[in-house]
Amino acid sequence: xxxxxxxxxxxxxxxxxxxxxxxxxxxxxxxxxxxxxxxxxxxxxxxxxxxxxxxxxxxxxxxxxxxxxxxxxxxxxxxxxxxxxxxxxxxxxxxxxxxxxxxxxxxxxxxxxxxxxxxxxxxxxxxxxxxxxxxxxxxxxxxxxxxxxxxxxxxxxxxxxxxxxxxxxxxxxxxxxxxxxxxxxxxxxxxxxxxxxxxxxxxxxxxxxx
Length: 210
Fold this sequence. Notes:
It is a single chain. The protein has two domains: about 5-65, Arc Repressor Mutant, subunit A, CATH 1.10.10.10; about 75-180, Gyrase A, domain 2 (2-Layer Sandwich). Helix content is about 50%, strand content about 15%. The chain contains seven helices and six strands; from the N terminus they run αααββαββαββαα.
């Protein structure tokens, strides 16, 4: 289980990615601290400075921007392993499914474990499917940003016939990387789970009566 400090860092970095990804002008680190505060995320100038470095943000013409890699995983071995990955799909706010070529899932899983991504709290792999669990929705957004970048950048190691195209991201919910789960969505999910539990209880009672 990640430490409280790790959870805060993942949430903070996900919020910074949102801010910079939305094109909000950020002129200073103190200004970014204020923007985070407006989104309910507490931070200090020193923690934000480390986050910007981790994310590969650069200051160009007085504004912070994300470079092409966003500071993620320049490791060539990880890139090569992702050249065998095909696509990713969401399975709720905590589970992500990554599909690979047959027989490649264990290799990709090993590369991810070595990368030691803070937001990933669990990983299972079979022949061609990986299940990655994150602690919360912010962690999943950070994970999806990594996956998207790696799928695109690994094209240099793919045969031309298997090049990953951005259009393949249509399987992902629109704006998924930059949106928060609303309270209404959370309540709706909880209501559905409660209804499912009630149905299961009714079925079990019926089976016992028989």
